[in-house]
UniProtKB/TrEMBL annotation:
HAMAP family xref list: ATP_synth_gamma_bact
Record bears the keyword Transport: yes
Protein name: ATP synthase gamma chain
Location in or out of the cell: Cell membrane; Membrane
UniProt-listed NCBIfam families: ATPsyn_F1gamma
Domain of life assignment: Bacteria
Natural source organism: Candidatus Taylorbacteria bacterium RIFCSPHIGHO2_02_49_25
Location (main, coarse): membrane
Functional summary from the UniProt entry: Produces ATP from ADP in the presence of a proton gradient across the membrane. The gamma chain is believed to be important in regulating ATPase activity and the flow of protons through the CF(0) complex.
MF-aspect GO terms: ATP binding; proton-transporting ATP synthase activity, rotational mechanism
Membrane protein topology class: Peripheral membrane protein
The protein's assembly and partners: F-type ATPases have 2 components, CF(1) - the catalytic core - and CF(0) - the membrane proton channel. CF(1) has five subunits: alpha(3), beta(3), gamma(1), delta(1), epsilon(1). CF(0) has three main subunits: a, b and c.
Gene Ontology CC annotations of this record: plasma membrane; proton-transporting ATP synthase complex
Length: 314
């Protein structure tokens, strides 16, 4: 049995840990609310942009365009963007993303195709390097308050990769609610109507003050985009696509990163709350052990005193 001094040290250390986890929970809650508000505020714009992209894709299909974002290169290489965090202590957030990414990579390799990865976040880069899968490129520092300027380097690279790979996918965590996030794999390139419909559906949140408004706007825009449209491109479809398609692709990638950031802070907040509760339970257990040890010492001293007095009396 641990000594009384050891138990006191354990109680003091656990209390310090509880203070740290409680502070981290509060910080994560603030960051989560900020990331959530940015992601939710971007959803209406992302929904409209993706529906425009869907309409353009339909028009391009009728025109048989040869734009790189619609054209599939003749090779068997797939590129996967994996979005994780730079920091840990976020529960199973990174584990779930990396597990889904490995499952997708296994599916592609079983089809006889090669797959390369781009690591967005420190955790993804370290994960694939340890498994001898050197990422095509890695990006860090895209957490917390990220903006479009911060991810400009990633946007430029995706445009280059569109000409090299048969398809480009992105694996990230979609924010559904504070207590629920979903790891998804979306197809970015080449553009397709099915992929755009899937992306638009994933933008609508399950709960929150934006849920009803976003759901209604998504239904309205979906109804509008289902109508057939005839496009007249002036001066040429190539010039218009060169200007518009990269910007719309950037919206998809930027929104995926925003969703991942909101999910990361939400997972960290829940994990720190659980750690704080566990520390409280551990302190109760140590306090009970301390009381038992103290009572055992008192009983021992009383027994010695009683035994001594009886010896003197006899």
């Amino acid at each position: 049995m641990a000594t009384l001094r050891t138990i006191r040290l354990r109680i003091r250390g656990t209390k310090n840990i509880k203070q740290i986890t409680r502070a981290m929970e509060a910080v994560s809650a603030v960051k989560m609310r900020k990331s959530q508000s940015v992601a939710l505020a971007a959803r209406p714009y992302a929904t409209a942009a993706l529906n425009i992209l869907k309409s353009v894709a339909q028009g391009a299909a009728r025109m048989d365009t040869t734009h790189p974002f619609f054209k599939t290169p003749q090779n068997d290489e797939i590129l996967l963007l994996v979005v994780t965090s730079d920091k840990g202590l976020a529960g199973s957030f990174n584990t779930n993303v990396l597990k889904r990414a490995m499952e997708f990579m296994k599916e592609i390799e079983e089809q006889g195709k090669k797959i390369r990865v781009v690591a967005i976040g420190k955790r993804a880069a370290e994960f694939f390097q340890k498994r001898k899968r050197q990422p095509e490129q890695s990006f860090r520092g895209l957490g917390d308050s990220v903006n479009l300027a911060d991810v400009s380097g990633l946007f430029q690279k995706v445009g280059e990769w569109a000409k090299r790979y048969e398809a480009v996918h992105i694996c990230y965590t979609n924010f559904l609610s504070v207590m629920r996030q979903e790891v998804v794999v979306r197809k970015l390139l080449p553009f397709s109507e099915e992929g755009l419909e899937e992306m638009v559906k994933g933008i609508v949140p399950e709960k929150g003050k934006f849920a009803d408004n976003d759901a209604n706007s998504a239904k309205e825009t979906a109804n509008t985009t289902n109508k057939a449209r005839e496009y007249l491109f002036e001066p040429s479809s190539k010039e218009i696509f060169d200007a518009m398609l990269p910007a719309l692709l950037n919206i998809q990638i930027y929104h995926a990163i925003l969703e991942a950031n909101a999910s990361e802070h939400s997972s960290r907040m829940v994990a720190m709350r659980s750690a704080t509760n566990n520390a409280g339970e551990l302190i109760k257990h140590y306090t009970m052990s301390q009381n038992k040890a103290r009572q055992a010492m008192i009983n021992k001293e009383l027994a010695e005193i009683t035994g001594g007095s009886e010896a003197l009396a006899s």
